Amino acid sequence: MRLLAFLSTVAVCAAAVNRTATNGWGSTPSQRHYINATQALAAINAAVDYSNSIGVPNDIAILDPSSQLVAFLRMDNAYLGSVDISMKKAKTVTYFNGLFPSYGLLNRSQTMGDLFGIEETNSGLVVFGGGQPIYDYDGYFIGAIGVSGGTVAQDIATSVHGAESIGTTITM
Ligand SMILES: *[C@@H]1O[C@H](CO)[C@@H](O)[C@H](O)[C@H]1NC(C)=O
Ligand SMILES: *[C@@H]1O[C@H](CO)[C@@H](O)[C@H](O)[C@H]1NC(C)=O
Ligand SMILES: *[C@@H]1O[C@H](CO)[C@@H](O)[C@H](O)[C@H]1NC(C)=O
């Protein structure tokens, strides 16, 4: 219940997007929208361009709203450990219908936070930055991007660049 209350709060805070039109609450199958391979590749390319501009080799994952992998790239010299982290950042976004970036869970997952331990559910979530929801220009939630390889701030900036190359995203 507390998690649901939290999600409602987040949804209200980010009311710029029409969430009834997404794959989340209130949607029907005919309303669902999914990122396609062309869009996913464009988002990867934008994230790669940004990664190169800041000199950070990244792992970049794109999931559709069902949390299935659409595209992935491990840039030359990107950490092997970041392969899993990038995917789990994106999964953290898609598992909660794209209502918040991965860092939306950071504060409340700390000791004494009301979502303490949530990162251990679902075979592993990532509660720090670098996972961003992707909304298309009509406000439909179409997928998520996860980036890992730099500092958290760099990963957030890179994932936002990727998402915004093909649509919009949410920052908190
Ligand atoms: C949101 O999208 C749904 C589905 O397309 C539509 O029925 C509804 O009128 C929209 N709501 C607003 C406030 O735009
Ligand atoms: C992928 O989605 C974009 C944006 O909606 C669209 O313009 C493009 O035609 C789609 N590509 C394919 C192959 O369906
Ligand atoms: C987390 O808490 C810090 C310190 O109170 C605050 O500055 C920050 O905005 C919070 N982050 C989120 C995503 O709520």
UniProtKB/TrEMBL annotation:
This is DUF336-domain-containing protein. The keyword Methyltransferase does not apply. Keywords: Signal. Residues 1-15 form the signal peptide. It comes from the Eukaryota. The keyword RNA-binding does not apply.
